[in-house]
Amino acid sequence: VRNPNFKEEDVKKVVESKPAVFVEVYRTEEIQMARLKLPILAEEQQIMEIINENSVIILAGETGSGKTTQVPQFLYEAGYALNRMIAITEPRRVAAISMSKRVGEEMNLSSDEVSYLIRFEGNVTEKTKLKFMTDGVLLKEIQSDFMLTKYSVVILDEAHERSVYTDILIGFLSRIVPLRMKRNDPLKLIIMSATLRLEDFTENRRLFKNTPPVIKVEARQYPVTIHFNKRTQPNYLREVYRKTVKIHTTLPEGGILIFVTGQQEVKTLVRKLQRSFPLGKAKYSSVQSVEKDSDEEKDEELGDVLRKKKRQKKLKLVENVDMDDFSIPGDHEDPDVEEEDLEDDDENDEVVVKKGQPLWVLPLYSLLPSYKQANVFKKPPEGCRLCVVSTNVAETSLTIPDIKYVVDTGKTKVKLYDKVTGVSSYFVNWTSKASADQRAGRAGRTGPGHCYRLYSSAVFNDTFEKFSVPEIKEKPVDDLYLQLKCMGIDKVVNFPFPTVPDLVQLKTAESRLETLGALENSKVTPLGRAISKFPVLPRFGKMLALSHQQNLLPYTICMVAALSMQEVLLETPIGHVDPQGLKDVRQKWRAIRRQWAGVGNSLMLGDPMVLLKAVGAAEFANSEGRLERFCDDNGLRHKALVEIRKLRIQLTNEIKMNLPETDVGVDPKLKPPTDIQAKLLRQILLSGMGDQVAKKVMMEELKEDEDKAKYKYAYRANNMEEPVFLHQGSVLKGSLPEFVIYQEIYETNKMYMRGVTVIEPEWLAKYVPHLCNLGEPLTDPEPRYDSISGKVFCTKTGSFGTQAWPLPNVEV
Ligand code: ADP
Ligand code: MG
């Protein structure tokens, strides 16, 4: 909505001379009142002056001060979106979506103008002025338009989270901004962050020659009293429940915000609390209750604590609580509450609360649909206390109003990768001091608050790291490395990273890319270029590039989409099932998967084949409008299948764009591959995963001192010492083939291979030549002249990989 008095031809003049506010926005009174409460509003003029006068600005302010919602509006009103767009990046998809909605609402503009774009979806139009997107999306855009000519301003939000893509974007933008300046077409870079470790950006001379100005925005913050537990209880879920019950039943009114580590924990705790404190007259509508768990996370993602066997011991809550922890005087009364184990979901074991107000319990985690997330911003029903159970989404990305009590488990869930082998494992670890302080700060937004830390001050002081480690230090960087190479960064080590990855990470990435054939002598090959175009891991990109030649694209696209998705096949059913029922369901699902795998080459294609069939069958069910039911019956995660479909469409379109003459479509009725096709698919998988070969351990190969029991059914992976195993859930579990490739190794009680396919050792020399050591040509049989190719072939002996597995004689 523009100011009617403003003339188009004056725009440029005004932009150059500044500082008049000249694009008017019409806001509702309610919104305007809410905005006026934010301290950042009073500083608009000062902030805009600094932005107008500098090309790189750091804006630091506590969560909730209004950075994300207000700064884009300031820029819009100052005319920055008149000719070009304003980009705002978020590390989390949920933030990109919910913030674009919120800002659109505040400004009274439609989603055509305030839009979002994330990997699979978006609502950007030609009219878009403010574009919220994930950081990965903007990085891809740099690949095709290095100068980011569509934008007048780039705002990198939540920079303190130090996501890999945000880090890389800062590096690129530190170069793009001066280049745009030279062209007389300035681009502004605004780095927004909580007030954490700003020196990584300001004092890093590789990034910015001169320290960029730092604007600090004050947030109204009331004092928060921190209460440490005297002892650190090992079962934090039990403890968090206990503490919440105690707060709710004994302390004055005020919202409660609880931090746990994952979606599964959120759901369990929400259910538990909802049952313990029923609402009476107020009811959760279908929107507000916990959604049916269509996307349970796996056991192994839950950390040890959840897996521990249920303990039946019941404790009188009041006997087990340090009264010191609840230091508000005059409100101690013994609650008539019994405490129990959180895992126990039996109806009979409900905690009975005889008195007290109802509790309005809401879940919050990043995969929760955004209309459900929005509930935490609404007022709870009359007479109810608000209680939000959240993952660390509520730490900085979203601000929940009226929180007075924070209960902090101090835990966070991390996926750890071994830098060399790429083995991943989930585990629950202590968060950092900085995060714990962020969490505590959530209690002081509207008045003085209290934060209950379920760990001792000794643990906090001695065990917690000061800051969380930037993500780039903890992940394999293969795709990043290839992308940087393709963008002409020859020496990746010299790229202006805010935090440089370890040398060993970079070396491993380089050698894996050489193995794939994406790099040769450190230069990108044409194959490497093709690979980098796909929004999937390089190894999958290679499979796509190769299958083009074999007319197998629809299958490979489908497999790659399914393999890229976390947890498509469920291990355990959703909801509560008795132990016998559980066993039955698991058996039924295994039988279905075994049937999907088929026989011959199809069976040897293994777990990826099961995924292919699952997707095909699900598409069919979808065409008949019964997808959800089908997923429930067959142990598939509904949300994963929806995402696989999106990724299939995206990959297909991308391939069509790069290879215009190809005729691939997302055929819902993908026929199962023939036996020959299945064999070719096994070879294509090998071409992408040739560094992830494992061979069955033969008992007679074992050294004297090695424990035979430890190696029963074991495999040895090419680049690892420890034995690895086929998982119970693999369709190949029963057959113990000699050579396999796997998609991933993950560690729980043992090392397990995920996504396993059988290969023939004679294929290795052809598909993974880099890792084969071939000997001298054999004199017998004689070299052979091939009249078709005009080549001379000779037979050689050879071995494969670091373990020097002997290969059958190969012809080269
Ligand atoms: P920051 O980015 O500095 O953390 P935000 O701009 O996200 O701050 O939030 C500013 C204020 O806007 C907060 O008080 C928050 O509660 C409010 N807010 C943000 N999103 C919504 C929403 N969807 N509904 C209602 N209030 C919101
Ligand atoms: Mg924000």
UniProtKB/TrEMBL annotation:
Transmembrane segments: none
Keywords: ATP-binding, Helicase, Hydrolase, Nucleotide-binding
Name of the protein in its database record: RNA helicase
EC supergroup of this enzyme: hydrolase
Enzyme Commission code(s) on record: 3.6.4.13
Domain Helicase ATP-binding: 48-214
Bias (Acidic residues): 333-349
Residues annotated as domain Helicase C-terminal: 301-488
Organism whose genome encodes this protein: Nicrophorus vespilloides
Stretches the record annotates as Disordered: 324-349
Entry's Gene Ontology molecular function annotations: helicase activity
Entry's family note: Belongs to the DEAD box helicase family. DEAH subfamily.
Residues of the full protein shown: 237 to 1048 of 1154
